[in-house]
Amino acid sequence: MTQFTMTIDGSAVATEYAFDVVNPATAHSFAQAPDCTPQQLDAAMAAAARAFPAWSRDEKLRRTALRDAADALEAAGDRLARLITREQGKPLALSRDEILASAAWLRYYADLEIPRERIQDDTDGYAEVVSRPLGVVAALAPWNFPLVLAVWKIAPALLAGNSMVLKPSPYTPLATLLMGELLRPVLPAGVLNVISGRDPLGALMTEHSTPRKISFTGSSATGRKVAVAAAADLKRVTLELGGNDPAIVLEDADPAAYAASIVDSAFTNSGQVCFAVKRLYVPRRRHDEWVDALAARAAELGVGDGLDDGVRMGPVSNRLQLDRVRALVTDACAHGAVAAFGGTEPDRAGYFYTPTVLAHAADGSRVVDEEQFGPVLPVIPYRDPGDAVAAANASDYGLTASVWSPDTDRAAETAWSLECGQVSLNAHGTGLRPDLPFGGHKSSGIGVENGIWGLREYSQLQVLTGPPRR
Predict the structure, then answer these.
(1) Using CA atoms, how far apart are residues 300 and 293, in angstroms rounded to an integer?
(2) Which of 35, 317, 343, 446 could form a disulfide with 239 if both were Cys (CB 3.0 to 4.6 A apart)?
(3) Cβ–Cβ under 8 Å, residues 382 and 281
(4) According to the model, what pLDDT value does residue 232 have?
């Protein structure tokens, strides 16, 4: 069975203990990952702390290293993509896109200017505000997009001058461990340490005395625990958490024009996307028309092993998530929803669930009120657009949303009323770019990632004042 090593202080590190990594398309383990010990965690933190001073002082080196890191990931793109598909389940094309996006994020930050703001420069004196790095960053990445969401943390943190200890999800550690291996020749020893392990490794990282910043992507429930642990010694936090993202189609929206795009958003990566459409509000009189169009599109999705040709939707990534999806659909149907398409599990090995469109779903049911994070789209009828906006905003979440109508001015008016970090018109999640901030309102997170705003999350301000400069 293939085994992988961690990267600590620029070197390959094995462990006495390891855990199995399961391919969700077969439900069988195919590799093992190191189970980091507390002593090895201490070593990784110490290595990051040693690397920080020299790294923080050499901006030119940091920019060159980020560009070289992008090249290294692209050069190993096929190997990385196949590994992501085997450990996470998504179609190979989507895994390849993840590698390309990771490289693009690294190059964006390699070229991004670190802000310096001159407040005063006259005969009375000089004052400037500059950005300084924080120190060691502890980063915890999720299992749905394991590589690119790790890079969302790596790129701005390293450009700002920080060093890092990174832990991927135990469901998907392998591609991240391979990335650590690929970047050993690119980054100075200790700048990026990649470890892996099961619980309680994440808690040990957030409680560790060395990091000055915790960057976490995952569920809101775990994010609250991270925030509490970080508060003990006033660590900074960025928390990119869950979303129960609404899409509202207005009365004049044509299902023939928009159903395909909505289905793509809802079922990409088997619905395991924080900003996917999670609940769809449609005019009551057009409910059946919308359901028929969505069901027809869902039926066209080829479901299977992500390594097979023609597959557009792979398995759910792990058994725990599959059990949750099954329970939510069962509960919804018990409370009046109808599966217009799907609602079943294929008779095959692996964690597969058919793409499911639920007609006549209702606010107050679990599948609408909770983040299902799976291939299920509840369709909720509304009488008035104001009612749809109120229902969308009633959620504890506030990550992304979308409004659909050929009248973009009217759609924009509706969009301004939605309480979330990003709203798209006639698309969903189109604000997901390296140059735009991504973050949630309410229980969807604290802080933002991406753009200059994401860079600032890994920096602290310092004021320099003095007499007039000659």
Answers:
(1) 11
(2) 446
(3) yes
(4) 95
338 touches 344 (CB < 8 A) = no
Residues 315-330 have pLDDT tens digits of 999 999 999 999 999 9
> What is the pLDDT confidence band of residue 1, given thresholds at 50, 70 and 90?
low
Strand order in the sheet with 116-122: 116-122, 125-133, 459-466
Report the candidate in 427, 426, 288 with the shortest Cα–Cα distance to residue 360.
288
Q: Does residue 200 have a cis peptide bond before it, meaning omega lies within 30 degrees of 0?
A: yes
Please give the C-alpha separations between residue 237 and each of 146, 208, 217, 378, 451, in angstroms, as whole numbers.
Answer: 20, 14, 11, 33, 17
User: Quick one: 339 exposed, middle or buried, by C-beta within 10 A (0-12, 13-18, 19+)?
Assistant: middle
Catalytically active residues, by annotation: 240, 274
Tokens of 66: 């980020």
Would you give the distance in Å from CA 75 to the centre of its chain? Answer: 23
Cβ atoms within 10 A of the Cβ of 231, count? 10
Query: Per-residue pLDDT averaged across 434-448, rounded?
Result: 97
Burial (CB count <10 Å: 0-12, 13-18, 19+), residue 425: middle
Span 56-65, mean pLDDT? 98
Helix, strand, or coil (residue 291) = helix
Q: Are 345 and 376 in contact (CB under 8 A)?
A: no
Contact 167, 44 (CB under 8 A): no
